[in-house]
Amino acid sequence: MARCFVTRRIPGPALDRLIDAHDVEVWPHRLPPTSDELREHVAGVEGLLSLLTDTVDEALLDAAPDLRAISNYAVGTDNVDLEAATARGIPVGNTPDVLTDATADLAFALLLALARRLPEGERDVREGQWVTFEPDRNLGAEVTGATLGIVGFGRIGKAVARRAEGFGMEILHTGDVELEELLERSDFVTLHCPLTPETRHLIDAAALARMKATALLVNTARGPIVDPAALERALHERAIAGAALDVTDPEPLPADHPLLEAPNLLVVPHVGSATVRTRHKMTELAVDNLLAALAGEPMPHQAN
Ligand code: DGY
What we know:
This protein has eleven helices and eleven strands. The chain is of the alpha/beta class. α1 packs parallel to α11. The two termini are about 25 Å apart.
């Protein structure tokens, strides 16, 4: 039996398999442990099941000298110092594939909602502003036949492309064209690359300036891929027509963050993988990764 720490309650029955096999502590609170709390709780722990809200860095690894396996409950691993874990021989698992469709669905839902100005229309109805059918009110952008630029053409980018084909969209992607060309030609730009030092602020003021003034930006990847100050300016100056964000920098955005004052901005709370089925499958995979590594076997999905 190995001591394990699970940094938040995660949904689905699969967590019981870990609890049955090992000595498991699950962080019971709604908010994640602070870095001090995390350091305290990993002392003597051999298996860590972390979330994207936990920073797993050198300092944390120093506090966990017995750690043999890290299983991250996400496909993204930007919260984990993979190099530091690798240097200590600690495998790091992640949860790809199982969340591809849910995330691609959300990207498309955001694209459609922003294009058709759904949040604004709903607000009008609730506030009694919708008084009659009006030929020139609430007019949005046509999705069918438009050009979609996909930045990052991995599993999720490709799943978004499959959905776009159903809408008769012309698809540009960074596996095929340069980012500059993609930004200039696309009516919609959707981000699906991982957060790395190279992609941090990939969408900066210069990138936003290349986009059409009628274009809409969708980010379901990681907040820091977009420079929030540059996005705020671009929206205020109508340099682009709108943005829909499932992820932000910082995350969450404080309620008084200036970006929230920008026009034509739709923000949702990092729900790309938030379907019952997907979150249960993520739990299964995260538990499988941890159980395998603690048994000295290869993880089904190892990121380092
Ligand atoms: C991930 O998996 O990286 C998502 O952001 C959360 O599921």
